[in-house]
Amino acid sequence: MVKMSQENTPTRQSTVQSYSERGSKAYEDPMNKEFLYGEITRRFLHQVEFQPNDKVILDIGCGTGFVFDELGDQFLSRDMRGIGVEPAAGMLEIARRKYGGDGPFTVHEGSFENIPLENRSVDKIISTLALHWVKSLEAAAREMRRVLKNTGSLDIFMIAKDDGAQFKKAIVAAQRKHLTFAQIMTTATLVQRVTPKECHAAFHPFHDDFDLRVEMFTDVVYGTFDDHMKWWKARSTPVIAEIKDKDRFMVDLREELEKTGTDKGIPFDTAYLWITGRSKTNA
Ligand SMILES: C[S@@+](CC[C@H](N)C(=O)[O-])C[C@H]1O[C@@H](n2cnc3c(N)ncnc32)[C@H](O)[C@@H]1O
Looking at the chain, which terminus has fewer C-beta neighbours within 10 angstroms, N or C? Predict the structure, then answer.
């Protein structure tokens, strides 16, 4: 393991802190894992393909270890080593409890901007629903390229520009009762919301040696307010971190979201990106 520099970290500390304090508590709830983005993450992971010489697999923003939970059997049967990297202490603690033992997994403090690994030491990078939290996609791509072998590959799943556009309107309406305009604007810029084209451009450190594809998928998923809150609270803690009266905010949010309800329930309009990088050397 390479020692990381803690100074002047380009990682957004407010996001990491809120994941650490609140997100980690809600994250292991089965509803978070089985509904909406939990379910979509599962679908994504079970389509990821491994090659016979994939031995070192890196999961960045590993959270509580979802990738290893889902693909653990494949790691064992293919004799692959899984390295999880995560900046939020609360998430890391749960991941370490699950994967800090003798198995094929290790979990370390780190981030997209500061990966505690040697140059060209990883066969495959996987990441689920973490890349949109970085300050700079380009800086993240540069650091991923540093650790990925020239023969390696990557499969990354992140949210896209229009993710939850309708749902977000209700969130902003509720936020208005609790935050200043400036605070709302700050929460709106926490997440990287990019189109496939913008994402592809930010990955320019990969362009010379990798065939890089960025595909966008959309879907509408319906649920009750409580269904949505199980996943939303776990995955969006930075958005409500500044709100003082969180219980009152939840009452206001219920009112706003229920206004958007249909016969099928409250809709969430998902939009997500799947980034694949395949080495031109292997082509
Ligand atoms: C929605 S969770 C996803 C966790 C896990 N990958 C999963 O799918 O269950 C987002 C994770 O990204 C982490 N994160 C936030 N900023 C990050 C950064 N700059 N680099 C790496 N991870 C980051 C958070 O701490 C959190 O654990």
Answer: C
Residue 78: inside a domain: yes
Residue 261 lies in a domain: no
* Tokens 């960045």 found at: 60
d(CA 268, CA 283): 39
Note whether 148 and 155 are within 8 A (CB): no
Ligand 1 is surrounded, with C-beta below 6 A, by: 11, 15-16, 19, 41, 60-63, 66, 86-88, 91, 111-113, 128-130, 133-134, 235
With respect to residue 237, please indicate whether it lies within any of the assigned structural domains: no
The answer to whether residue 252 is domain-embedded is no
CA distance 14 to 273: 24
Rounded Cα distance between 186 and 108, Å, is 29
Give, for all 283 residues of the chain, the pLDDT tens digit.
Answer: 655 544 445 777 777 776 766 656 677 777 677 778 888 999 999 999 999 999 999 999 999 999 999 999 999 999 999 999 999 999 999 999 999 877 899 999 999 999 999 999 999 999 999 999 999 999 999 999 999 999 999 999 999 998 998 899 999 999 999 999 998 888 888 888 999 999 999 999 999 999 999 999 999 999 999 989 888 877 777 788 889 999 999 999 999 999 999 999 999 999 999 999 999 986 6
**Domain boundaries, position 44:** 13-160+192-220+270-279
Task: State which of 46, 58, 59, 91 you would mutate to test the pocket of ligand 1, scoring each by most atoms of that ligand within 8 A of its C-beta.
Answer: 91
DSSP assignment string, 232-257: HHHH-HHHHTT-S-HHHHHHHHHHHH
Q: Residue 70 belongs to a domain with what CATH number?
A: 3.40.50.150
